[in-house]
Design brief:
heterodimer, A: 316 residues, alpha+beta, 5-stranded antiparallel β-sheet, globular, B: 739 residues, Aldehyde Oxidoreductase, domain 4, 7-stranded mixed β-sheet, 17 helices, binds flavin-adenine dinucleotide, binds iron/sulfur cluster
Chain lengths: 316, 739
């Protein structure tokens, strides 16, 4: 951790101004990801703007019948909100499948979306990593890669997005609302929020520097049967090997996204359309063109079986 | 006291305090966070500076240059020492291989190359990033499977440096060739790390040429000797204190870089320095349990009698290091007239492989007990019965050497009865519960009972309280408690009247904590000291020591009875002695035994395994305290679940290191993984083990567990996975989908 300065912002406008006026500044919310990265000098902000005092802590009904979730709502509060549990159960289940109670009490909705990857080489600052040091190379290729992505990767980076919440937000077609340094707001569909690595693995999100997430909105509920199945080596407190978020309807249609298989939650609408034909059809379409390593090729048949399990457990 | 003949009746046999459940006397300190662990001993010495270790980022080669200018100029930095400033120690301490610091040679990844000392931990850490090291990289060997074919046979160092390499009885080749039923399989176990809760940590302070180190070490006198050897100073100049230890599992048996660098750093800084090994450094910098490749060949008659046992265990270590003795259990466990058992050792350039809880036995049983399960199936004999059939009451290599006590069969039968083993489906893959495939498995465990000399001092204070002092350690095991119980029993007072002080090298030298010898031998040492104190008390009060009874805070003989405290009213009375052991462990095999049972569910879609219930039946001599003993066993069972299902260090054979070098990447079981665990202790005091008639209990709880879980997985799925850990990708595609 290098020395840094710190301030608390009281309003979104103040927060974005504070960031814009200090080069190398970053927001800090729960700090559960950022502080770890700072200790390893993977992130080296010179100034932190603490946004926990911002009035973005409520979950409100929106005019269209959906929900508006403040960026600072904790993972615990979001997962236990009555409407979320009832009408967006996939989200509730995804969140409680992640991390631990203590971490979820701290973690914020905005920070969770921006959590960085868990590639082991990303965390070892003595090894090349294009995400950490652009152009230095990718140590994971040809290395230990069991947990990494099988699709959506590039020559430059094969890291997976390891988060749970974002996979559920992806099947729900959530929207991320932001405010930029000039105070302008915009809405980013979740499908566009995470960037594939391409030639710039260091760019992971569609945010501009200094842009603040203010809220995440959900469209009106979808009904149907909600599922989040997270496959992992131990029963709790582990990142997913593969996860499936699904909202399944009575008529056999539905929505599906896969977690921990790609640099972003992996939802392919054309594949989803194959749901009535069964899990194998969905997975073969969703993973067409996959480029797994020998360590993680199993994730594709595992994704199929996990989806099959979810379909078998559908409650209609 | 020299223990050379089997113990007769003695005051411990009253079992008024010993043998009864007692909660840990150090429990309140632990749960209130006030037990002073090494890194938090702020009060022991003023002006402590913080050290941060820089680890080598190559696995093999030489250091050409180290540039510390930027680090030295960084805020708060007191000093920076580098490995180039020192010569590597001439001699290695006992059972240690890797050089901890000194010289330009890099022998493994994350070997310590510099220590940055600063006013605060954060400043030291920030400056550590500024140390620039130039390396000349040399090629190394990092892949056990690649080196295995050329690995030469090796002595089992536990049998002595000049022991025979091959443990051969009868004619294995002929008997195996002729056996009507044969098994020939190869099993692998991965590199594992201890993953103890408290990282290695030390504070060092010099006073002239004397150094005191407050540290976290299982073996205080080894640490003291190792520090003296490495620093090249006389042992009398070293003081070590290690009263509270947040877990060790073998990782803290030996001197590590934290203590050495704290001492060197403190000398260079001219003030006390504290050093903890950063968690991401521990796994490659410290020691680990070596991976093994084990070929097991069993030959049997159709009625289930083993005629031939062959076991070859290959492991790797730094040149000069010790093998992982996976063959240890096989030498003693089952009868068979023809045997060929030996080790091979490959030279590898990964970090140092060394002891981890039940070294040898734990990985050896992972293979042997899976092989026994497979053989039982081939024979069509129940796995419990198959083990009963092949029980032996003497060392299979020497029928003249019986076991002192061996109640494995009783463990097996009791366990089978209690667990409902008869309900197990003989056909694998046959039991379903919704999406789960359900199976039961069992395995047997053996672990030697090792005897180490141990001394203690006990003082009767004028107020009637007792103070025990010994350099014994409590690594979370309950040593404080059972020592208090021992003193209370011997002196006839309640536990609350005893204060136990541990872990100070100024106290009498104990056995320390390792190899599950601590409980039995340290209490025996205290027993000897108590005998001395009883004599002193009797003399002071005018009793004949032989017929004085110590009970209820009084000393009684005939109809004369005097309060114990009276004996010390003019000043404290002290008893000091130790126990040494004769050859009863040569004449008899002394070991502990377990039968382990597990029921698991395997998700038929995803292959995830979740343990449903577990039972251990343990034969470990007299149980000194059922509460702390149970904790040891359930801790072992938990570790066994980790070994069976998730624990593995992932080797990057290009960089020569373990990649998942933190607790995020190296998964151990969490609460949600551990279901109902039950422990049954058999009660067979062992008069040949010690005056306490106890044996070790710290490791037997782990022995056989992983195989029991693995055998349960097989029983659930019908798919045999011989490469630990059984992670889902090793079997899920072969599973039927049930739901
Ligand atoms: C041990 C451990 C286990 C975990 N396991 C899981 C798991 O199983 N599944 C899972 O999904 N996650 C897991 N996580 C990740 C966890 O979910 C994230 O750390 C957490 O959600 C981040 O939220 P935060 O508020 O603490 O973010 P912070 O650490 O405060 O911030 C993260 C990043 O987001 C930025 N940021 C924060 N808020 C905003 C905002 N409103 N606008 C713009 N930028 C912002 C910060 O600048 C920073 O770059 C785990 C984490 C740990 C430490
Ligand atoms: S996969 Fe990505 S994060 Fe991992 S080492 Fe390669 S570039 Fe870095």
């Amino acid at each position: 951790m290098i020395p840094f300065t710190y301030e608390r912002a009281k309003s979104p406008a103040e927060a974005v101004k504070a960031i814009a006026s200090t080069p190398g500044a970053k927001f800090i919310a729960g700090g559960t990801n950022l502080l770890d990265l700072m200790k390893f000098q993977i992130e080296t902000p010179t100034h932190l703007v603490d946004i926990r005092g911002l009035p973005l802590t409520t979950i409100e009904d929106s005019a269209d019948g959906g929900l508006r979730i403040g960026a600072l709502v904790t993972n615990t509060d979001l997962a236990s909100h009555p409407r979320v549990k009832r009408e967006y159960a996939v989200l509730s289940r995804a969140i409680v499948a992640g991390a631990t109670g203590q971490l979820r009490n701290k973690a914020s909705t905005g920070g969770n979306l921006l959590q960085r990857n868990r590639c082991p080489y990303f965390y070892n600052t003595d090894m090349p990593c294009n995400k950490r040091v652009p152009g230095s190379g990718c140590s994971a290729m040809g290395g230990v890669s069991r947990s990494l992505a099988v699709i959506g990767t590039s020559e430059g980076c094969i890291a997976q997005n390891p988060g749970d919440m974002a996979v559920a937000l992806t099947v729900l077609d959530a929207t991320v609302e932001t405010m930029d340094a000039a105070g302008r707001t915009r809405s980013i569909p979740i499908a566009d929020f995470h960037r594939l690595p391409g030639n710039t693995p260091e760019v992971e999100f569609a945010l501009e520097p200094g842009e603040l997430i203010t809220a995440v909105t959900l469209p009106p509920p979808l009904g149907g049967s909600h599922h989040y199945h997270k496959v992992r080596d131990r029963a709790s407190y582990a990142f997913a090997i593969v996860s499936v978020a699904a909202v399944l309807q009575k008529d056999g249609t539905g929505r599906v996204a896969f977690g921990s298989v790609a640099p972003r939650p992996w939802r392919v609408k054309a594949a989803e359309a194959a749901l009535p034909k069964g899990p194998a059809a969905v997975v073969s379409a969703a993973f067409e063109g996959a480029t797994p390593t020998k360590d993680n090729a199993f994730k594709i048949p595992l994704a199929e079986r996990t989806l099959a399990l979810v379909v078998a457990e559908r409650r209609v | 006291m020299d223990f050379t003949t089997p113990s007769g009746r003695n005051p411990i046999d009253q079992l008024i305090v010993v043998g009864r459940p007692a909660t840990r006397v150090d429990g309140p300190l632990k749960v209130t966070g006030t037990a002073p662990y090494a890194y938090e001993r702020h009060e022991v010495v003023a002006n402590q500076a913080y050290g941060y270790v820089v680890g080598a980022t190559i696995a093999k080669g030489r250091i050409a240059r180290i540039d510390t200018a930027a680090a030295k100029a960084a805020p708060g930095v007191v000093t920076v020492i580098t490995t180039l400033d020192y010569k590597a120690a001439e001699k290695n301490p006992l059972r240690q291989t890797a050089k901890l610091f000194g010289g330009a040679e890099v022998a493994h990844y994350h070997q310590a190359v510099a220590l940055v000392v600063a006013q605060t931990f954060e400043e030291a850490r920030a400056a550590a990033f500024l140390v620039k090291v130039d390396y000349e990289t040399a090629p190394g060997k990092f892949d056990l499977a690649a080196e295995a074919p050329d690995a030469p046979p090796s002595v089992d160092p536990n049998e002595g440096e000049d022991a025979e390499v091959y443990d051969r009885v009868g004619d294995f080749d002929a008997a195996f060739a002729a056996a009507p039923v044969k098994l020939d399989e190869t099993y692998t176990t991965p590199d594992e790390t201890h993953a103890m809760m408290e990282p290695h940590a030390s504070i060092a302070a010099w006073d002239g040429d004397r150094v005191t180190v407050w540290t976290s070490q299982q073996m205080v006198h080894w640490a003291k000797a190792a520090l003296a050897t490495t620093l090249d100073i006389p042992e009398e100049k070293v003081r070590v204190e290690s009263p509270y230890i947040g877990g060790g599992f073998g990782s803290k048996l030996y001197l590590r870089a934290d203590a050495l660098l704290a001492a060197l750093g403190a000398k260079a800084a001219g003030r006390p320095v504290k050093v903890t090994l950063q968690r991401p450094l521990i796994i490659n910098n410290g020691t680990h349990r070596a991976a093994t490749i084990q070929r097991i060949r069993l030959g049997a008659t159709p009625d289930g009698r083993l005629t031939a046992i062959g076991h070859v265990n290959i492991s790797g270590n730094l040149p000069g290091g010790m093998p992982e003795a996976g063959i240890a259990p096989t030498k003693l466990f089952y009868a068979a007239p023809n045997r060929e058992i030996y080790l091979k050792l490959a030279a590898l350039d990964l970090g140092e492989a060394n002891d981890m809880r039940a070294p040898g036995e734990a990985p050896g049983l992972m293979a042997l007990e899976m092989a026994m399960d497979e053989m039982a199936e081939k024979l069509g004999i129940d796995p419990v019965e198959f083990r009963v059939l092949n029980d032996t009451q003497a060392d299979p290599r020497n029928p003249q050497r019986p076991f002192s006590e061996r109640h494995l069969v009783e463990c097996l039968r009791t366990g089978a009865e209690h667990f409902g083993w008869s309900k197990r489906s003989k056909t694998p893959g046959a039991v379903r519960d919704g999406k789960w495939l359900v199976g039961m498995g069992m395995a047997a465990g053996i672990r030697l009972n090792l005897l180490m000399p141990s001394a203690a001092r006990i003082r009767l204070e004028p107020d009637g309280r007792l103070t025990v002092e010994t350099d014994m350690t409590d690594i979370g095991t309950g040593a404080y408690t059972i020592l208090a119980q021992t003193a209370a029993e011997m002196m006839g007072v309640p536990i609350g009247a005893v204060t136990v002080k541990l872990g100070d090298s100024a106290f009498p030298q104990s056995a320390g904590s390792g190899g599950q010898w601590g409980a039995n031998t340290s209490t025996s040492g205290l027993y000897a000291a108590c005998v001395k104190l009883r004599e002193a008390v009797a003399a002071r009060l005018g009793f004949n020591a032989a017929d004085a009874e110590f009970a209820d805070g009084k000393v009684t003989s005939g109809n004369r009875s005097i309060a114990l405290a009276e004996a010390a009213k003019n000043g404290p009375l002290t008893g000091e002695d130790g126990i040494t052991f004769g050859d009863l462990d040569k004449k008899y095999v002394q070991a502990t035994f377990a039968a382990q049972f597990a029921e698991v569910g395997v998700n038929s879609f995803t292959g995830e395994t979740r343990v449903r219930r577990m039972l251990a039946v343990v034969d470990a001599g007299r149980v000194l305290n059922p509460t702390t003993a149970r904790s040891q066993v359930i801790g072992g069972m938990t570790m066994g679940v980790g070994a069976a299902l998730m624990e593995a260090l992932a080797v990057d054979t290009r960089h020569g290191c373990f990649v998942n070098h933190d607790l995020g990447g190296y998964e151990v079981p969490v609460h949600a993984d551990i279901p109902h665990q039950e422990v049954i202790f058999l009660d067979h005091p062992d008069v040949k083990s010690s005056p306490m008639k106890a044996k070790g209990i710290g490791e037997i709880g782990l022995c056989g567990v992983a195989a029991a879980v693995a055998n349960a997985v097989y029983n659930a799925t019908g798919v045999r996975v011989r490469n630990y850990p059984i992670t889902l990708e090793k079997h899920f595609t072969a599973l039927p989908r049930t739901a």
